[in-house]
Design brief:
The protein has 554 residues and is α/β, with parallel strands linked by helices. It has two domains: 232 residues; 267 residues, Nitrilase/N-carbamoyl-D-aminoacid amidohydrolase, CATH 3.60.110. Helix content is 45%, strand content 14%. The strands form three sheets. It has a six-stranded mixed β-sheet with strand order 6-5-4-3-2-13. A hairpin with a 2-residue loop joins strand 7 and strand 8. Helix 3 packs across helix 8, helix 4 packs antiparallel against helix 6 and helix 8 packs across helix 14. The longest helix has 33 residues. It is elongated, with a radius of gyration of 28 Å. The protein starts with a strand and ends in a 6-residue tail after the last strand.
Length: 554
């Protein structure tokens, strides 16, 4: 008979701290939360109207450092803190007319998504070349919040803070996901480089390959950006067109501008008549076509004779096709309301239409209306929900194929890409920012339009009711722009282009590939964790002692 020996666990007192180590003091414990908050604030400061795009790099470096090596729960909390520091000031314009609650609720919701991304970044932060996997996690977070809930909210994508940055050419390669990925990768790479520098200072050595990995994650995005420069061009491919954009202004700022619909329409008609008079006097070249803003006529000209006559007189005076932004609703109790653009001919009147496809939740329709009205009396201002259109907006105006994305749609990749794929030779983004006063919102949206110009290599014209209106070249530079809350006429000759950039051809594929990078990092981190647990379980744990089995046991 042989006696076998088994191992049993004996409870051991758990030390409060490792031998020779003391609990970190309060300043040290606050270092990472402070870094996350500072990173979020720097990221906010990198966004327009400030031309400080480069602040995104130290901001992301601080953010990445705060998350490196943290457990999942700490990763979520730190990501949330950084998200709040970023989103609260970035989205403060949402409080201009409807108060603090919607602003804070939206910022917190977006910060929660950043917290979840922070959890994922923490999970992959112990992997080799962690900035690569972590940047993929960041893009995965942006992809989710750009789609969910209520169709998503793309404001605050890192790419939209880079219209003046060196990374901008990458928008033409892989759209806003690749542009954002490059910035985040470089920022996290700086964090890793700093971490390795500190390790070398302490120990006079670093792990083999760590310096190379840190250098590559910083330098590769920069090198790729310079390699993409040939894709950025202002050269005409189908001639050029002279376009005029009308900014009529609104009588008062705020949500109640709709109560002065006739005055807003008259303002835009007046500026168009002024343009016609200047053309007739030889002070301006005659445009090939004219663009009015979104909501330039909130009186439906298809069913209101007065509005129709006012628009028709202005368009006939200037003598060229004119795009009109209006609201259209067919008569009847069950008829749908659309945010509509109309191609208005000086000879035949209203023609082709584009109904806005991506309508804004809580602005153009009210999800969960009964709940929303309990939290904000302003929810009642959206008295009737708009309906989304279904067709892509491309008008042929004086022989030029003009593609349209209306205001809010500029924030969403596919909404801008679709008209280019459908044959648009230039883009227009009619907008109405009067609701948001003189806030940074209009500059943030203009930055999106500049990034879209490079992404699809198209001129972009932005007519707004109250500013900032702009004409943008395909390389993202602004040819002309207006002030805010002042009437303006912008006019310029813009190149027309027909070629498709890699970003336009690939569509959402680069985004899914980058999301897959984050997913692969998560899978690798999980595999390593499972393997480590199995290896720990296969050996006798510390604090065990062999115990002989009972006689006869086998």
């Amino acid at each position: 008979m042989s006696a076998t020996v088994t191992s049993v666990q004996t409870p051991q007192p758990e030390p409060s701290a490792a031998p020779g180590r003391t609990k970190p003091r309060l300043p040290a414990r606050l270092a990472r939360p402070a870094a996350a908050v500072a990173g979020g604030l720097l990221l906010y400061a990198s966004f327009p109207p400030r031309p400080l795009w480069f602040l995104a790099l130290p901001g992301l470096a601080l953010y990445g450092w705060s998350l490196h090596g943290r457990r999942l729960r700490a990763g979520f909390v730190l990501g949330l803190l950084g998200g709040l520091a970023f989103m609260l000031p970035l989205l403060v314009w949402t409080s201009v007319e409807v108060g603090s609650f919607p602003w804070i609720a939206l910022a917190v919701a977006e910060a929660v998504f950043m917290g979840l991304a922070g959890l994922g970044i923490a999970a992959v932060s112990r992997l080799p070349v962690w900035p690569l996997w972590a940047a993929g996690m960041w893009i995965a977070g942006e992809a989710v919040r750009s789609r969910f809930p209520f169709g998503g909210f793309s404001w605050g994508k890192v790419a939209f803070g880079q219209p003046d940055g060196v990374f901008l050419p990458l928008a033409a390669v892989g759209g806003t996901p690749l542009l954002g990925f490059a910035v985040v990768l470089c920022g996290f790479g700086l964090a890793e480089a700093a971490r390795q520098a500190v390790a070398y200072r302490r120990h006079r050595t670093v792990p083999r390959g760590a310096v190379t990995a840190a250098a590559v994650t910083v330098l590769a995005p920069l090198a790729a950006s310079f390699a993409a420069l040939p894709l950025v061009s202002n050269a005409p491919e189908k001639g050029s067109a002279t376009v005029a954009a009308i900014q009529g202004n609104v009588p008062r700022m705020g949500l109640d501008f709709n109560s002065q619909r006739a005055a807003v329409l008259d303002n835009h008609a007046r500026q168009t008549l002024k343009l016609a008079a200047e053309v007739k006097a030889g002070k301006r070249p005659k445009p090939d076509f004219v663009l009015w803003p979104e909501n330039s006529s909130d009186i439906d000209p298809l069913h209101d004779e007065g509005a129709r006559l006012t628009i028709d007189a202005a368009v006939k005076a200037v003598g060229v096709p004119t795009e009109i932004g209006t609201l259209v609703q067919n008569p009847g109790p069950d008829s749908k309301l659309y945010n509509t653009l109309i191609d208005w001919s000086p000879t035949s009147g209203p023609g082709a239409t584009y109904e806005k496809r991506h309508i804004q939740p809580f602005g153009e329709y009210m999800p969960m209306r009964s709940i929303a009205e309990k939290f904000s009396k302003d929810a009642a201002l959206v008295s009737q929900d708009f309906s989304p259109g279904t067709k892509v907006g491309v008008f042929t105006m004086a022989g030029t194929r003009v593609g349209f994305a209306t205001c809010y749609e500029a924030a969403f990749d596919n909404d801008v890409r679709d008209p280019v794929v459908a044959g648009a030779e230039m883009l227009a983004v009619p907008s109405n920012n009067a609701t948001f006063d003189r806030s940074q919102m209009t500059y943030q949206q203009l930055a999106m339009d500049r990034v879209r110009a490079v992404e699809h290599s198209r001129s972009v014209v932005v007519p707004t009711t109250s500013g900032v209106s702009a004409i943008i070249r395909p390389d993202g530079t602004i040819v002309q722009h207006s002030g805010m809350f002042t009437p303006a006429i912008l006019e310029a000759r813009v190149p027309l282009r027909t070629s498709l950039t890699p970003a336009t051809r690939l569509g959402s594929l680069p985004e899914w590939l980058l999301v897959a990078v984050g997913g692969a990092g998560a899978a690798l981190a999980l595999t390593r964790a499972v393997r480590a647990r199995r290896e720990d379980g296969s050996a006798a744990a510390p604090g065990t002692r062999p115990v002989p089995a009972r006689p006869g046991a086998r």
